Amino acid sequence: MSAASNTAVSQTALFEFLTRMGDNALILGHRVSEWCGHSPALEEDIALSNTALDLIGQTQLWLGLAGEVEGRGRSADNLAYLRDARDFRNVLLVERPNGDFGKTLMRQFLFDAWHFLMLKALCGSTDKRIAEIAEKATKEVAYHLDRSRDLIIRLGDGTAESHRRMQEALDDLWAYTGELFIGDALDAELVAAGIAPEPESLKPAWDELVGEALSEATLKKPSDGFMHKGGKRGLHTEHMGFILADLQFLQRAYPGATW
Amino acid sequence: MTAVTLPSTSDVWQWLAEVPDPEIPVISLVDLGIIRDVAFDDDTLVVTVTPTYSGCPATAIINLDIERALHEKGIEKLRLERQLSPAWTTDWISAGGREKLKAYGIAPPVDGTAIDGILRQRVDRLSGRSNLTIACPRCGSANTEKISQFGSTPCKASYRCTDCLEPFDYFKCI
Questions:
Q1: Between 20 and 30 A from B67 (CA), which of A5, A27, B74, B102?
Q2: What pTM does this model have?
């Protein structure tokens, strides 16, 4: 991250950035929560639910701040339940379907490695509110990464069947990892203000972290070819509408319903 | 008109020390280390609370419990403030709280088991230098193994004693 500066950042850029962070956590948290009651073992069910819970908790912090920054009275709940697909800013990786347990874990690992590095960098943000959320979230995500890393190694370097499935998952998901490191004009504005790191700057550490684990998992790292992108700008895959139908049903059908 | 007598902040700390954690009722909110400050802003009592885990469902209940307990003590003007930084750490669990956890069957957090340096921990594990042991809260044996880094609540991991064979919760370090 660049040295602290006082460059003012536009409210729009800040709001967009916060929804990018919040929507990544929300959509992945929702995907992971789909496992609740369906995991291959009780311990894994609990671990996945706990991971989802952490991510939804972080969503409340990010989207809560986004609503505050926007200043139009929208709460975290409003933003989660009442926006349409084009207004979501999550990367495409997190909306990929769960697939089997191995694929869910591979998606988690690829995301966790980025998430951890991103949050670590955000701990030094010039925006104190962002640094505080990052400080809190880093502790939780360190546990997510520890677990997903451990499991992809055990499954990759496991039986012939688990190895085959993990390699397939990796090959399928790889083309969705590039988007995490592609910056745009909005990112540049945040970098200039010392609020967030340049997305590309996280790539070497991510490559190292991921490469090391994949080699321990006896998995072959795919080459960086074509990469899907668009999520950060609101252009999503066909899965997004189905996720929102599930996620937002209650508030759409019964507006304002509370527990 | 009679002046309203405000309680001292030490009275308030004492009252809060009697409010149990909703998930682990053997320890209080003060034992848990989540009450960060108690102060008066004019005649409004301000209690600063920090969440354990950002998604912990108990957070909302904790706020309700604090409000109820303090209203029962006659506090009328109360404001709860959330503080994220410094982020909660298990280091803030009191010595008394650790004893109570152990007596309740939950192994208290062991210093040095936090995952803040993944690389360092991995290196320690590979080189066999990590000699941290989580003792079984039932039989005291140091022969225990981790079943899962995630347990019955966000703050706990699942362990098993290889001597008495009991599974138990470990209050993991963050």
A1: B102
A2: 0.90
